[in-house]
Amino acid sequence: MKTILFDNIIYSLQQSGGISSMWTMLLNSFYQENRFDYTCFEYNKKVFQNIYRKDLSIDKSKILIHKSILPLSIERYLDINVPNSDIFSIFHSSYYRVPQNKLIKSIVTVHDFTYERFMSGIKKQIHCHQKYKAINNADFIVCVSNNTYNDLLYYLPEINKNKVKVIYNGVSSDFHHIENIEKDDYLLYVGSRCNYKNFNLLIEALSETSHRIKICGTPLSNKEEQFLNKKIGHNRYEIYSNINNAQLNQLYNSSKCLIYPSSYEGFGLPILEAQSANCPVIALNTSSIPEVIGKSPLLIKNADKKSLIKALNMLEQDSILEEVIKAGQANVKRFSHETMANQYKDLYLNL
Question: N- or C-end of the chain: fewer Cβ atoms within 10 A?
């Protein structure tokens, strides 16, 4: 029987997010699995601040608690010392960790190249050093999209293509259409609000309309709150933080549409979550987004106010709305969490 060590460090690094969601779906698939034994490596009680980890049931006998005098801010960048490493066949880290024991087969999942494209300075240097070390030491590399695969070959052209595979992220069954739910006229924004996500551009566009918006992500900073109040007013937006999948599914189902104007994504999981809930998606036709969203008249070519407003106006046409929802229902079938998990399990067996 293959014995896998899953490194759950992502639960200590973020409270929510696409990587945490993907990792949780993978771990959930092992409950009824008899081809593998597994252990989860975890770091401290902070893991339970992660909304996905709180709802994940792992037998205590399968959890190995990491003990270190170093703070996580340092420990996260160090090679992992695996106790009793001779019992493990495969090491799979949720976020670019390398085992000290080189006899263990190592898998790394590459999620995106955001740091390379949009960050600078020491933060970028540290991240890239860790990521590239994990990639170069891996026995096999998984990319979450063809776009990420192409980025990998661009930034690390010396990589052996024969040890790289694309495995799409799956969408959780937590996201689904709710019958007879009342729709409101709110738009929905989900995720980070850093510069390349074009959140400010979206708000600038909404300032020229009467639309209201629900913002799902980290709490607003004072600066963001002032910006929103100035551009659209305090009565035209609501903020939702640290919500679970059931609550997010309600938002997808009740909202007019998801607006996802990001200029770059390694994958773009909210697109599929929204489509699963019959929520139309307006997104930018760039990076992995067209690969994930499928055919849609709501893909915009340029990140500008005019294009966003034009797409919003298209949703007022019932024929387009029906077309987009139907296409979304068909598209999500390509990205089941079972398919994702089975492809990883096949990879483990092949190693």
Answer: N
Which residue type, as a one-letter code, is found at position 65? I
Single out the residue of 93, 273, 282, 13 nearest to residue 169, CA to CA: 273
Torsion on CA atoms 338, 344, 348, 351, rounded to nearest 10: 140
Dihedral of alpha carbons 46, 49, 53, 54, sign: positive
- pLDDT tops 70 at residue 143: yes
Instruction: Report the SS3 class of residue 135.
Output: helix
Backbone angles phi, psi at 165, to 5 degrees: -140, 145
**Domain count along the chain:** 2
Listing DSSP states for 7-32 in one string gives E-THHHH-SS-HHHHHHHHHHHTTTT
C-alpha distances out from residue 24 to 7, 38, 54, 61, Å: 12, 14, 10, 18
Reported as a single tens digit per residue, the pLDDT across 225-256 is 999 999 999 999 999 998 999 999 999 999 99
Is 180 inside a domain boundary?
no
Residues 6+ positions from 340 with CB-CB distance below 8 Å: 22, 25, 26, 167, 168, 169, 170
Please tell me whether residues 206 and 247 are part of one structural domain.
yes
CATH number of 162's domain: 3.40.50.2000
Same domain for 341 and 223, yes or no, is no
Say how far apart CA 308 and CA 200 lie, in whole Å: 12
pTM score above 0.85: yes
**Does some domain include residue 217?**
yes
Q: How many CB atoms lie within 10 A of CB 16?
A: 22
Please say whether the beta carbons of 186 and 256 come within 8 A.
yes
Structure token pair of residue 332 = 């999500």
Structure tokens at 238: 């609501």
Question: How is residue 126 written in tokens?
Answer: 């540290």
The answer to whether residues 107 and 147 belong to one domain is yes
| C-beta neighbour count of 205 within 10 angstroms | 23
State in Å, rounded, how far the first CA of the chain is from the last one.
13
Task: Specify the pLDDT at position 283.
Answer: 98
